[in-house]
Design brief:
The protein contains 5 helices and 12 strands. It is an alpha+beta fold. The chain folds into 2 domains: 46-138, Nucleic acid-binding proteins (OB fold (Dihydrolipoamide Acetyltransferase, E2P)), CATH 2.40.50; 146-250, Nucleic acid-binding proteins (OB fold (Dihydrolipoamide Acetyltransferase, E2P)), CATH 2.40.50.140. The strands form 2 sheets. The chain has a 5-stranded mixed β-barrel with strand order 2-3-4-6-5. It has a 5-stranded mixed beta barrel with strand order 8-9-10-12-11. The radius of gyration is 35 Å and the shape is flat. The termini are far apart. The model is unreliable at 25-44 and 231-255 (pLDDT under 50).
Length: 255
């Protein structure tokens, strides 16, 4: 056997050995099964329900709710007022708010966390789903009067109030006006301006309940913080042209 034949034979033997080794390793390797889809996963939930129907039909789908409806009934228990809200289809939802007086038949909105299978020992009943909220917000009137604003200041972000100035108070930078529109008296604060008693004014601004002025040593039930409207056709609505942050910076009222 010549040298060339020997080399060829050695090469063939090496190749056969490598094939055998590879086969053994593959046979002994741990087989990892392909991952299988879990068909028992719960459905994806939504963060908030917006209608009574949504909450009634699938209460487990939601963790929070912001729901409006007519106030059908209320009852006080312990530190809570339990409220029943209804819709036009006759469906209802329960809500619990800090104890307060609620007017039946009015429209209201509650926003809060949903408690499922909640048992009230005071009422001796279990609710499939009940909304726990900080309060109930009355439906806002499109063009509120002073009386509307005073009754439910939290319902209004931006308001326009008009009326006769009963009295004024000036501080270093601001003029406070007591305005009477015939339905009630409300205070407003604007940048210092020369306003006389008996003058009719219109103020465009934001309603701030429980506003405390340390400069005047006075707390206002509601204060309209805004600007004096002198010409409705040429003056811009500040709240529409500024962000909340800019508006707050623009009106740095003393507290």
């Amino acid at each position: 056997m010549n040298l060339s034949t020997k080399k060829m034979l050695i090469t063939v033997l090496i190749a056969i050995s490598l094939i055998l080794i590879s086969g053994c390793a593959e046979k002994n390797a741990t087989q990892i099964p392909a991952p299988q889809q879990n068909t028992n996963m719960p459905p994806q939930t939504s963060s908030i329900a917006y209608t009574i129907g949504e909450l009634n039909e699938t209460p487990d789908m939601y963790s929070r709710a912001e729901i409006s409806g007519k106030i059908i009934d209320t009852m006080n228990a312990s530190i809570y007022t339990y409220v029943i809200l209804g819709d036009d289809a006759g469906r209802i939802v329960w809500a619990a708010i800090p104890q307060t007086t609620v007017e039946l038949g009015t429209e209201g909105t509650v926003e809060g966390n949903i408690m499922k299978d909640f048992t009230s020992t005071t009422l001796d009943r279990t609710f499939e789903a009940i909304i726990f909220a900080d309060g109930i917000q009355a439906a806002a009137v499109e063009n509120p009067t002073n009386a509307d604003i005073l009754e439910s200041p939290a319902s209004y972000h931006t308001v326009v109030v008009s009326g006769t100035v009963n009295q004024t108070m000036n501080t270093s930078s601001y003029t406070y006006l007591e305005i009477d529109d015939g339905t009630g008296i409300i205070w407003a604060a604007i940048s210092q301006t020369n306003i006389t008693t008996g003058e009719n004014v219109t103020i465009d601004g934001n309603a701030q309940p429980g506003f405390e002025s340390k400069t005047l040593n006075k707390t206002f039930e509601v204060l309209i913080m805004g600007t004096l409207v002198t010409d409705s056709s040429s003056n811009e609505n500040v709240s529409e042209t500024m962000s909340d942050e800019d508006f707050a910076a623009y009106h740095k009222f003393e507290r």
